[in-house]
Structures are given as structure tokens and as C-alpha cells.
Amino acid sequence: MICNKKSILSILPYITALMTNFIFGLSFLFSKKALGVTDPITLLSFRFLTAFLVMTLLIALRVIKVNYKHKPIEWLIGISFFEPVIYFIFETYGLQRTASSLAGLMIALIPVVVTILAAYLLKEKPTPKQTANIILSVAGVILIVVMGSSDSKESSILGIILLLGAVFSASFFNIISRKISIKFTAFEITYFMMFIGAICFNGISIIKLAVNKKLSFYFAPLKSVTFITSILYLGIISSIIAYFLVNYTLSKMEASRCSVFANISTIVSVTAGVVILNESFYWYHVIGAIMILVGVGGTNYYRAKSEESEATNI
Predict the structure, then answer these.
(1) pLDDT for residue 221 is more than 80
(2) From 146's CA, which of 209, 214, 248, 264 has a CA 20 to 30 Å away?
(3) Structural domains in the chain (count)
(4) How sure is the predictor about 249, in pLDDT bands with cuts at 50, 70 and 90?
């Protein structure tokens, strides 16, 4: 009985990692569906308002705890600028102009860009094998962009550029969050991000409606069942439940190993886009996807190897 319990606990982090990335993979599908009902800013305002209100309720019920006393709040404001504000503006507007399957492939580049930025900002130079895998991933993106430039039905160059903006924004967020993780708990960082997202996007949405004298239309999207289900998924399941799963996984598994599971979200988003939304997926998408995924996996693998080697030498 004890052995069975131990074996279950040993595989549980892998199960939660799979669940987390499956949830993240489907978020592109729900975002795409919601964008068929309303504009990106309205989608973001309701998404983060829902997440903020639910997390506030959890804090009130003492399910989670946060404490910002005598802590450098200015750092939280800084990282919240990159994510969620800049990141989700780029991602959502980019998703509006591209297929969700392609968006999933582009976002998969985040670990690669983090490695590149870490080389300049944190002086963490990539190994030759990491560099080769970075080049492979970038080549995969270039192949998709060049071959798909003539097909404007589902994706556009502007959409891809916006998604690259999201990738760099999320990468800067990851770099900065490493610096402040010793000052704040993961719950405190996430809750503050939801708060900033709710304030910024709702502020923009309300000002926009007020200027156009359409303030009474603020709750109009809630008439759509598709919009409501998308917001519930994005605000609660993707922003809160998935976060709890991430928090548990990271408490039981090294971050370098966790990052490898991120490829699953890409596969899920691509599959959902093609199967459910009937998005086109050409031969160059397949080759480009393989190049990106192999490159991302290789970058993560050799980074983990490098970290293990450094730890052994200490």
C-alpha cells in the first residue's frame, strides 16, 4: 500500500505537467472563438477581471495567501508591464491575424528566446549545441513565414510580427521574474499580474466605449454563450487552475525538466486549430513545426545538461 502511494506521488508531477500544458494548448482555441464575438481589448478585460475576482475570492476564503508588506512593489509593476499587459496585447492581436495553430508554434519559441536574452542580460552563454538548436528553431519560423507569405487567408506577416512581440515580451518577463522570485511568492506575483491586467484592459475598454458614446455596450459580449464559455475557460481554468498545477509541478520537478513539457501545449494548439477550427496546415507547416519543436526541445535539453554539469563542478 505504501509502495503504491509512493509510486503515485512520484508520477503525479508528470501528470500535472501534462494537464497544465494541455490547458494552455487549448487556450488559443478559446481565444480564437472569443475573438469571433468581440475585439481583443474586450476579451482581455473580461479575462483578467474574471481571474482577478476569482483569485480575490480565494484569498478572502483563505485558500491562498498573499502579503505585500515591506516588499519592492515597483518590481511587480515592472514585470506586469511585460506580462500580462504587453504580452497579451501582442498575443491577442496577433492571434486575430493568424491561425491558432501557427500562434501555438510561434509561442513555443519562448524558451529559445529566453536562452538568447539570458546570454546578453544574465551572461549565461549558450553551448554550441544549444546554439545549433536555436538556429534550427529560428530557421523553422523563417520557413513558415516565407512559404506562408503568399497565403493571406488565415495568417498575415503583421500577425506573425505581433506574435514575435509576444514571444520577446514573455521572455523578458521570465528573465526579470528570476530576479524577484526570492522576494515574492508565486501566488503574490500572479495575483498582482491579474490585478494589473484587470485595471489596464478594463480601463482601456471603458475609455474606448466612453469616447464612442457606447458605454452601455460594456456587457454586450455576455449575450454570447461562446464568449462566456471562452472567458470562463481563459479566466479560471487557463489563468488559475493551470497556475495551481504549474505551482505544484515546479515544487516537485526542476524547472528545466518542466520546460520540456511546454512542447505539448504547442501540439495541442496545432491539433485543435486544424481539427476543430478547420485551419489549413500545409507541408511547410509540418516541416517548420518539426524544426521548431526539435530546436526548442534540444535547447531545453542541453541547457539542463549544462546546469547539471555546473552543479557537479561546484
Answers:
(1) yes
(2) 264
(3) 1
(4) confident
